[in-house]
Amino acid sequence: xxxxxxxxxxxxxxxxxxxxxxxxxxxxxxxxxxxxxxxxxxxxxxxxxxxxxxxxxxxxxxxxxxxxxxxxxxxxxxxxxxxxxxxxxxxxxxxxxxxxxxxxxxxxxxxxxxxxxxxxxxxxxxxxxxxxxxxxxxxxxxxxxxxxxxxxxxxxxxxxxxxxxxxxxxxxxxxxxxxxxxxxxxxxxxxxxxxxxxxxxxxxxxxxxxxxxxxxxxxxxxxxxxxxxxxxxxxxxxxxxxxxxxxxxxxxxxxxxxxxxxxxxxxxxxxxxxxxxxxxxxxxxxxxxxxxxxxxxxxxxxxxxxxxxxxxxxxxxxxxxxxxxxxxxxxxxxxxxxxxxxxxxxxxxxxxxxxxxxxxxxxxxxxxxxxxxxxxxxxxxxxxxxxxxxxxxxxxxxxxxxxxxxxxxxxxxxxxxxxxxxxxxxxxxxxxxxxxxxxxxxxxxxxxxxxxxxxxxxxxxxxxxxxxxxxxxxxxxxxxxxxxxxxxxxxxxxxxxxxxxxxxxxxxxxxxxxxxxxxxxxxxxxxxxxxxx
Amino acid sequence: xxxxxxxxxxxxxxxxxxxxxxxxxxxxxxxxxxxxxxxxxxxxxxxxxxxxxxxxxxxxxxxxxxxxxxxxxxxxxxxxxxxxxxxxxxxxxxxxxxxxxxxxxxxxxxxxxxxxxxxxxxxxxxxxxxxxxxxxxxxxxxxxxxxxxxxxxxxxxxxxxxxxxxxxxxxxxxxxxxxxxxxxxxxxxxxxxxxxxxxxxxxxxxxxxxxxxxxxxxxxxxxxxxxxxxxxxxxxxxxxxxxxxxxxxxxxxxxxxxxxxxxxxxxxxxxxxxxxxxxxxxxxxxxxxxxxxxxxxxxxxxxxxxxxxxxxxxxxxxxxxxxxxxxxxxxxxxxxxxxxxxxxxxxxxxxxxxxxxxxxxxxxxxxxx
Lengths: 533, 369
What we know:
heterodimer, A: 533 residues, alpha/beta, TIM Barrel, five-stranded parallel β-sheet, 10 strands, disordered N terminus, B: 369 residues, Rossmann fold, 3 domains, seven-stranded parallel β-sheet, globular
């Protein structure tokens, strides 16, 4: 049935210490007052709130979206009914790349990996019957994020709610697209300018909205180490803060609406340390580098997701256990919000049954394990504090490298991030193939026969229907108003002005995502990637 | 001479998950393969076109977007239409096991899912490649003379491996040969891609010879230039061939001059030659081209500094790329000061296309003189 392990494995990516345990001697440079303090107190290593989960559990937020807007709308209602507390929207690849469903490159990909949204009309159907003033919504989209935000504001307005009532998060983190996920459209400079436009708009009109979810998740999934994930993410965050200040915004007005998004991988203690280090670094940077005064501006609030890359196609039920351990690390690390992956996600988008088990995993941690009753239970452990310090030191060394290159944008231009991530991915692959790192069910304890799983199937009919409704929309809209709205967008983009008002007007004139992106491409140019190797 | 296995790795469609394909690219290089990675967002047509022009032994497509049922039939169709049915197609990424039989039935040679070891994949590829390739010299020569791109592609392989067959005379024809050199990261490949497009718009047929370095350790190479060049619809009169430098010094690869003459004899009007880009050592190119364009970019160091370097002496023209960035004016001024002669300096940006037309117009004019 199963084979024996091939070697005495060390776990994941932490350098293995000679010593079998940590002790007082590892605390030589540790000052509990300035580096730890109490939860809710600077530098917030132990958590941004004093009471943490005793007062409010983390938000259980399962990412969902597939097929048509109607299908996703039904999944949203299912999840809300099962006790989920926030919505999280996955878009299909064409939408993520700012292309309409009827674009030639969209062929075969409409509605496959998320919901297809090409127009305001699609967005109306997506949130039909859901009161947008009462849910918090997260939208995972980047290059066309400003357009999707414009759609959302329009749908809420039609429901009778102003932008100031809306709660949620736009991922809107274009920098990590250049490092890792590759869903960029414009060159780095104009792309970041567009992000700052949304920060500025949000600061003035959407006080409850998280304008950017600065993401390490994709960086890690693409192969980065925990320290690289931490450092690259926080460096990106600093870049957004710097540019927002340059735009003339007060750091205490916008930085409270920046949030973070981390991956939670297999190495249990390393992940807890990473999240703790993130809070300590960010608090120090915001206070000392950017002059933030308000405590809330110093908070590194975070969403976490378990690591999709650790799931295996082989023996998929094992994934439930991996997810549970990773979720536990996120909770012990003090996350504000969590997505747990479903066991079948290496194969396809998850089935309803698999999503339910993933959500139940969080509920078991929250309501049965009792880990919620004391804040930062790992705090003060020699090992955890040592790891936290090491994470911080590694991140600081990477910040120095990036600064020496002239900042994040210059480093992108030189291919620094992509190269580092690919190098780390290669190293991990070598560790696995050499037998130094085990994957249960794949490299060790392998089953002879494979157990197939029922997976979710998305039919071609979604694409056909979506393309047909888009054609109808393009034929029916007020052509004069539509044309004028795109001209206005182009003019504002040329002037270098904030394009948000123009995007909202174009959304109302039924301009599509693809049309608005093409208009801006005409001004900003298109990017075909930095150095690859 | 034994030629390394040449593999083309492709990401098709909009999916940007490139961790797996990049790990494989590096692993194949370590196994001594020549790896042509065509980058993100390729169509099936462009992928098979590239496979044909590069005369690869095998194509590997990475698919994680669940679009395999749509993509595979398209790949197989273009493989047939382009006359390269000898090239096996491998699939990697996320292909549910329930779809394997259907996909294999469509004409895919093998499917590798996550968890497949690179050692196993390399072994399988070696087995597959050992059994292919069987065209006769007569067919090759006839095809070349009939201007069939497949035959040109295979003749280049034949030339590099065993020399040219009888019946082909390499004579200087009417093509203008342009060398493009400059430091890594300056944008040589993007420039060639954009310039090639502009020359095509002006009615000229364009061939590209792109040279990347061979690893001295394992004999493999990552040939990545092409991915910056192949944007837009594939075009029979825009022929790109990537080669590894092998043990040849000086910025070119084995038989570069003969390959250029093959392009010339195939009626291309312009041949663009991209050197390795090691900077100071790319001298050889001057001996076999009509013009040498040296690419530089803003803040690429003190202009005085690079004027002392020998590479400045072999350039006949200068191209200042990335003029959309700050510092372009200053670098331009420095260059004028440092050169002190009348060699032209074009200002371009491969990101927004600025200035590319001027270089293309100059090339068109230089040919009419």
